[in-house]
Amino acid sequence: MNIAILSVYYVQARTLWVAKMQLDMLQLCSKKYNITLYASITGGREIVEPLLGQYSFVKLIEDHSTDSNPSKQHGDSLKILLNAAKQKEYDYFVTLDMDAFPIKENWLENLSILLNDRQPVAAIDRVENGDSSLTHPSFCVLKKSFVQENNLDFYPNSTHISDLHFQHFLLDTNQRIDTGITIAYQLSKNRLDWVRLQRSNSANIHFLMAGIYGDSIFHMGATSREPKFYYQISNDAIIKRISWLKNLPFLWKLHDIIYDTRVKSISKTNKICMSTISSKLKRDPISFIDTLR
Length: 293
Fold this sequence. Notes:
293 residues; alpha/beta; 7-stranded mixed sheet; 3-stranded antiparallel sheet; 12 helices; globular
């Protein structure tokens, strides 16, 4: 089974260990597959490029895309990687965040049984973060035929935004725009379905971070950005209580002050939780993941 893995690396000195763990776990759990990891670096090149060079299955792809929106940047980089991988013959194309990795040897075998022409994609489905129709790019498997038959994007471009069908898709699904949504949209447009890998943890340290999906993939979450999560913020009791202030003259400034203070507080709590998760992963990743399963 020939597999192209697409990973975007935005790395800081404090997160280099996460990228190494992803590569080590991928190598450990993929011995029965022929994998090539197509990598692009959007941050921390001087730190992560030497690491990537230590793995024979990694192919570094030049990525000159830039965007102030990190979600769009991620989507643009994934498209560059997909276009590079399409030049070779692969059975499956897999997007994988730098803080996500398989946790068992038959991680793709089990999924490939579920994929077919009517259901050509399997992806993490983070319903716990308020998503309803987002093929999340932290782990998304695309069948070769689906890639060949469609000009795929991972983030909406101007054509999508002006497309009434895309706007109806957003309204019908009540799905916010994020990286991966255009894969879900393409499936919907073609009247196809996808395999939804939902959180399967038996134990949770956090509602979103340190997630196991389909008992096959671990995703740490928020390694490359501030740990501020959509569902947490949109459902926070204090933020909901002050929402009426934002449209009032003068009082909107008070709203913004309270809102920013509350978001910083949520982020601080999440950082403490992330520190606990990181310590446990560094100490013994296999044992820690087993306690979550």
